[in-house]
User: What shape does this take?
Amino acid sequence: MAALLLALAVVSTGLYAGFYLIFLTGIMPALARLSDEQFTAAMRRINEKVPRATFLLVFLGAVGFPAAALFVPVDGWTTADRWLVLAALVCAIAGHLITAAGNVPLNNALAASENAAPPVPDRDARAAFESRWNAFHLVRTLLALAAFACLVCAATP
Assistant: This one.
C-alpha cells in the first residue's frame, strides 16, 4: 500500500507539474501573441474547461497522495526520504494556496469582465489579468516541479 501511495504521489504530481509547465512554456506564450479580444476570449474559455473532474483529481492528488504517503510506513525509507515527501507536500500546498489566492481570483475577474456593466474593454481586462496571472503561474509551476523532483528522489532507491 505504501509503495502504491508513493507511486500515485509521483504520478499525480508529475502530471500536475507537466500541465503547468506546458501552460508556462507553450500555451501562455502562444496566447500572448493574440489580440486583446482573442486573448481574453481564449483565457475565458480555458478557465471554463480546466477545473473539471480530471484536472481536479490531479490537483487534489498532488496534495492528497504525498500526505497519505507520509502516514503509511514504507520499508526501507530513510529520514531523508520522509523529509523529501514532506518538502513535496509543502511545495504542493504552497502552490495550491497561490492558485486559490492568486490565479483563481484573476480568472474570476476576467470572467466577470465579459458581461460587466459598464463593459470592460478587452485591453483593460487583459492588462489587469495577464502579467499578474503569469507571475503567479510561474511560482506555482516551480513549486509543482520542486514537489515532483522531491517525490522522485524519495521514490528512488
